[in-house]
Amino acid sequence: MSVIFLLITCSTLVALIFLGAFVWAVRKGQYDDDRSPAVRMLHDHPPQVDTNTKVK
Amino acid sequence: MMERFQYDNRIAKNFMFVTILWGLVGALVGLTAAMQLVLPSWNFAEWGSFGRLRPLHTNAMIFAFVGNAMFAGVYYSLQRLLKTRMFSDLLSSIHFWGWQLIIVAAAITLPLGMTTGKEYAELEWPIDIAITLVWVVFGINMFGTILKRRERHLYVAIWFYIATWVTVAMLHIVNSIELPISLTKSYSWYAGVQDALVQWWYGHNAVAFFLTTPFLGLMYYYLPKAANRPVYSYKLSIIHFWSLIFLYIWAGPHHLLYSALPEWAQSLGVVFSIMLIAPSWGGMLNGLLTLRGAWDRVREDPVLKFMVVAVTCYGMATLEGPLLSIKSINAIAHFTDWIIAHVHIGGLGWNGFLAFGMIYWMAPRLYGTKLYSTTLANWHFWLGTLGIIFYAIPLYFAGFFQSLMWKQFTPDGFLVYKNFLDTLLEIQTAYWLRALGGTLYIIGLLIMIYNIRKTVSTGKLIVNEDAEAPAMEALKEGHSESWHRAIERRPIQMLILSLIVVGIGGVLEIVPTFLVKSNIPTISQVKPYTPLELHGRDIYIREGCYTCHSQMIRPFRSETERYGEYAKAGEFVYDHPFQWGSKRTGPDLLRVGAKYPDSWHYYHMFDPTSMSPGSLMPAYENMFENELDITTTEKKMEAMRTMGVPYAEDFPTKANDDIQKQSAEITARLKKDGIDAQSDREIIAVIAYLQRLGTDIKSKPVTEISELP
User: pTM of whole model > 0.80?
Assistant: First the structure.
């Protein structure tokens, strides 16, 4: 069953990567605002004055 | 300062079209396989028998249909969520064509019988390497885009994409460690229980991180977009993401309950599986509640209809999954069609319907037009929904009842259904209904193809879509901004650098496995396969026998009565790869050795109905025509020796003499039963393997336990 150590190591490694990402996200203030991102993603801003491609 | 830029729509369009194309192909292969389970005559050719088409179907649906849908969705949404164009058009293009080439390679090699014999990881090693490379290209393109974003906040969907990329990369590499003996044949580095554990760690997490997390990301983008309202709770989405990814990876052993896997590992898998209900349902509720107050729109908009059913199916499948990993339920459901129904709720419902909803929403926008026909989309929706119902419900019944038949005893303590085939023939109606369900689903798909074709023809592809957004200001002055500015203009250099890093990582991962020594108690009676048996085993793998036959007798009386002594971990130490199987359309074969005379197998493989009237097994006439390829014997034996199978040092060179001897014995035994068999045919090797199965400890008391030398 020694392979389980390989699997646990890999799984833990990935978990640590995610933990690091989580800490990064929190420290960078990614989650300071937990309301507006959900609203902002709804708006795509086509350029005000359109010159070449027509955007609908 | 506002910056102007353009979104790349062509790449999203390309991936969207191949999603539809491969979805249709994969579904048709699936329907063919379904028909083969009711009409064996549908096993139309050597390359088109069930054992080869089933892996083709699963691989096509997972990697071609769901994979391309994921990429289409990611390439469309990532640019808009980050307010930037993709990192590199060239990498996008390499990703697209590379992935399609992999799919074509899979579509050619799997029917030809080139397979590793590990479910959902059947592709041989050169394709495995190609997958790794293309995946790296995708990663660089994605992370490069993230680096040059104009939106500081990473929307939750992007987190799901990132988790997908990181985890799939690791799973794929670890599970694909194999020893090649030629371009088209390799052996899994791991053996027996260890191989099973790695495989299902991979298999489970492939479901988690290839079929689930990317599609949750897509849900968090396309559902709010289609409903034009923010997700119900953004806070919940964050909590649900982080808890899901931390829990998912530990649940794999629930695929091996009651197997020869150590008890503690099984229990670990169960506990984490149950916990998974919480984050999974967090996601489902968040999706459904996004539509609160907008249900009137669901009535009118086919896009939302598809998404509602998709999310509902996700909820059902993720409740069912944990329930199935409870041991007492698993004892009934495992090896039956219940599991097939379960995965199709996920596949047809969650993945399929979310992809369809996404396509109906995205296609008109890519082409600056309106959907050609809402009526046709509604038809697709209802046919698809009916298809799912007709597919799943009969199979739930079939699985449950067949399992009960397997376990049924008379008052005197004998099996009621002694013949496995009887239980299979009882559920034929369900198999017919399943094929009907699949047909309805495919008709829906065809309607979509027509509808999208018409939609596309009324518009024109907006190749580069103009957009503008303020530049992302640096939070504080520092080096962090400058170093990625420097590399983001150099995609090729970054690609090469990443490949080197991945290469080093790969080596680091392989090293410990070379050092790994099995500490499974080895049963001294268990001996390595003879060269002929090994060849037979490779033919068994080539024909995909494991897609219908398990080699894992669970410690239940109903199974030991029917099949013999239950499976021990120590029996499988020479099995590269393991062949436990996951579904019993035919009986377990772990102890089939010496159960029937050689002549029985001979007749049975040529025409299964001659020995078991009504059998649904394909005939394997090819084994009687093909000469056994003994040119590879030495390489095979050397490979086994490299992986620690204790053959004598000079044995590989003499192995072919051993083959001559053993096949002469089998031919002589066949002769006694009046069969004039040619000793150099594949069938002889197959008989040798089947007759060996489980005989090492069959009806002999297991006495000595020793360590592997």
Answer: yes
